[in-house]
Specification:
Chain A: Keywords: Cell projection, Cilium, Coiled coil, Cytoplasm, Cytoskeleton, Protein transport, Transport. The complex is a heterodimer of chains A (199) and B (263). With 199 residues, chain A is an all-alpha fold. Chain A is 60% helix and 2% strand. In chain B, a hairpin with a 2-residue loop joins strand 3 and strand 4. Chain B starts with 12 loop residues before the first strand and ends with a helix. The chains are: A mainly alpha (199), B alpha/beta (263).
Chain lengths: 199, 263
């Protein structure tokens, strides 16, 4: 009565958590076939049979939905598992690399995170140079401000006696004033120190 | 070749010798200019005078208020927000002391350990070392010893004037201030320093302190010059008093470049 080659019946023997949507269709095929058989064999009962058939279809639909949902969940969990596995591998390999790095570092060494936007970048020498440049410019600024103040206040009439320093370090009055490299002299005034020379 | 210098601001004129903060720790008790110095200053009109300048370095732990102290005096401002000094900074303050123009070149240094390799290069050639600590943090007082040692290493100890300054007076009670001052005076005596308590926030004692620094540095270098010139029988007041010698000037010229680059 049953065809051994077509094995939709096998679906009925399956583990419920292994069930696929195809299995549900197989089951519905088997049940539908049996219902048809019963219907043809018991005339006069068709009303009750079709009622039962309606309920069975409903149950099969429910089963289909549940199997579908279940397989989706399984798929998601599988992906999640794969991701976690990859993450774990990455962390492990990084840790191993870190350990290896630390092994190579001496006690005075430091690890720099190249992705840190605030990481140390410039050398001591570069900072020194920037500071020297800043100091030089600040000295120049002070000089210019002083001179500007002189001109603004009009406190420098051409023939008034001024304390002025010549490049050779001696002093002179403004009557001897000459055009020249003002800036250099002024810088020297600000910075003309010889260590140990003065008190 | 020549320079223009505006007149010294009225609030930077020192005619009477500024007084110490406490007689228990001061560099000198005298309340007037040294007789020889006063005499030399009075004779200045007979000779021409070159500008004199002393180098001052300010050292101490981070966040004790070195920059605030300097800014209060030089710019009369106080910034509540803390901004760590990067490396070094400087200010030039022009004085007229006993009628003679005199400048202080004040070097502000970073207190952070990581900048020491930079700042130590600027200690060289200092006539005045100001070690600063925070009255609210006794550890910073303890560290002044190290700071002084570091600064002195670059200088001849006998040629520098040393000051010990306790800052943030506005933050301590008078009882606490007294206790800390007691310790600080002991430190100052050990360091052969003059002690001052100040507040950059309120401005208390800041001007008095820097006037004292300027006057002592001025007199110190004047006496040095006088010693030199009397040794070589040079006439005082005839332009040789604080005029730079020709060969010296040449040296200065040669070293000016390096001075800039290392200072």
């Amino acid at each position: 009565m049953e065809d051994p080659d077509s094995s939709p019946e096998l679906a009925l023997e399956k583990d419920p958590f292994q069930l696929t949507v195809e299995d549900v269709y197989d089951i519905s095929y088997v049940i539908g076939r049996d219902l048809l058989k019963i219907g043809s064999e018991s005339k006069g009962q068709s009303g009750r049979i079709s009622e039962l058939q309606f309920k069975i279809v409903r149950v099969l639909e429910l089963l289909e939905a549940m199997v579908n949902q279940c397989s989706l969940n399984v798929e998601e969990l599988k992906m999640e598992k794969d991701n976690l596995k990859k993450e774990l591998e990455r962390v492990l390999s990084e840790g191993a690399r870190g350990d290896a790095g630390q092994l190579n570092l001496g006690p005075d060494k430091q690890v720099i995170d190249l992705t840190d936007p605030n990481r140390p970048r410039f050398t001591l020498q570069e900072l020194r140079e920037v500071l020297q440049e800043r100091n030089r410019l600040k000295a120049q600024l002070l000089i210019v401000q002083e001179e500007l103040q002189c001109y603004k206040s009009g406190s420098i009439p051409p023939n008034e006696e001024q304390f002025v320093t010549m490049e050779n370090g001696s002093t002179a009055s403004s009557t001897e004033r000459a055009a020249g490299n003002n800036e250099y002299t002024m810088i020297k005034r600000l910075f003309s120190f010889k260590p140990g020379k003065q008190a | 070749m020549l320079q223009l210098v505006p007149p010294v601001s009225k609030n930077r004129i020192i005619s009477d010798f500024p007084k110490w903060y406490t007689p228990e720790a001061c560099l000198q008790l005298r309340d007037h200019f040294h007789v020889q110095v006063r005499a030399a200053c009075q004779q200045r009109s007979t000779g021409t005078i070159g500008l004199k300048m002393s180098k001052v370095v300010v050292v101490g732990d981070l966040y004790v208020g070195k920059t605030s102290l300097i800014n209060r005096f030089c710019k009369d401002v106080f910034d509540r927000d803390y901004k760590a000094t990067i490396g070094v900074d400087f200010e030039i303050e022009r004085f007229e002391i006993a009628g003679i123009p005199y400048n202080l070149q004040i070097w502000d240094t970073a207190g952070q350990e990581k900048f020491k390799c930079i700042t130590s290069a600027y200690y060289r050639g200092a006539q005045v070392i100001i070690t600063v600590f925070d009255l609210t943090d006794i550890q910073t007082l303890e560290h002044t010893r190290c700071w002084l040692e570091d600064a002195q290493r670059e200088n001849e100890p006998s040629s520098t004037l040393i000051f010990l300054v306790g800052t943030k007076k506005d933050k301590v009670s008078s009882a606490q201030c007294e206790r800390t001052e007691h310790d600080a005076v002991r430190y100052a005596n050990e360091m052969q320093a003059e002690y001052w308590t100040v507040s950059a926030k309120t401005g208390e004692n800041v001007k008095e302190f820097f006037f004292r620094v300027a006057a002592l540095a001025f007199e110190h270098s004047m006496l040095k010059e006088l010693e030199k010139s009397s040794g070589s029988m040079t006439q005082i007041g005839a332009g040789s008093l604080i005029k730079v010698e020709k060969d010296e000037a040449e040296n200065v010229k040669d070293s000016s470049q390096t001075s800039i680059s290392c200072c």
